[in-house]
Specification:
The chain has 2 helices and no strands.
């Protein structure tokens, strides 16, 4: 039963991540392209550049969260 609970929890976390990624993509698109979206069809290069910028922001936040968690747990052992 424990394996089922772990798989169920993992699935729930994956769903939460997917939902947050969708929200992040929508917010980033609004920020970069405006509420009405792009004024023209985006080229692959433009999509790639925006994706790269989003990945950089995400990586910075992830690093901050991991580093904060590391430092926050040092005294708890």
């Amino acid at each position: 039963m424990e394996g089922f609970d772990q798989n169920n929890q993992r699935s729930s976390i994956e769903q939460q991540i997917q939902h947050k990624m969708e929200e992040l993509a929508e917010l980033f698109a609004q920020q970069q392209l405006g509420a009405d979206g792009p004024g023209k069809e985006l080229t692959f290069r433009e999509i790639e550049e925006l994706g790269y910028q989003l990945c950089q922001l995400t990586a910075q936040e992830f690093k901050s969260a991991v580093t904060k968690g590391k430092h926050g747990n040092e005294g708890s052992s």
